[in-house]
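Service request form, structural biology core

Requester: graduate student, group of Dr. S.
Request type: structure prediction, single chain
Budget code: on file
Notes: please return the result as structure tokens.

Sequence provided:
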Amino acid sequence: MSLKDEVRYVKEELSSDEKLLESAFRLERVYKKHKVKIWALGIVLVLAFGGKALYGAWQDHRLAQANEALLRLEKNPADTKALEELKSDNPKLYALYRYAQAVKKREVSPLKTLAASKDPLLSDLERYHEAVLRDKAGNSRYYHDLSLVEKAYLALKAGKKDEARQQLALVSEASPVAGIARLLRHYTLQ
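Core staff response, request fulfilled:
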């Protein structure tokens, strides 16, 4: 390697080092100019992620307490302390528990108070079971085919075979109650 090549090589190395130093100085100037903003952003990010982690841990703790309260209620339904814990820690699970207990005991009055539930599924099921417990055909989006079979059965009991056939014709063949509907249709043909 000649002396000129070595000098050129050293110049290139020095220029790349100068560029590196220049970018480091630029970065330092930007840091000095925006130091407060950079630190504020860092603190906000740390607080946000830390807060999210703490909130998640707190939610998990509340759910664990609600599950423990539900298990205690299954062992002893008269445990009012567990019922209050369930109500405060997980209101949706509390409403579902009250619904299940009302249906199990065949009580209509708790279903009336729960029917105003914020959960549309639970509200629909509560109205349906309230009607069934009153020996009426319930209307339900979720038990639609079963509601149709019940209406057909009540129409048969009242001697209205044509109305019963119309209700049974609306039952889907893919429905779990399609077999019952076929039997009732057969019964109405006689």
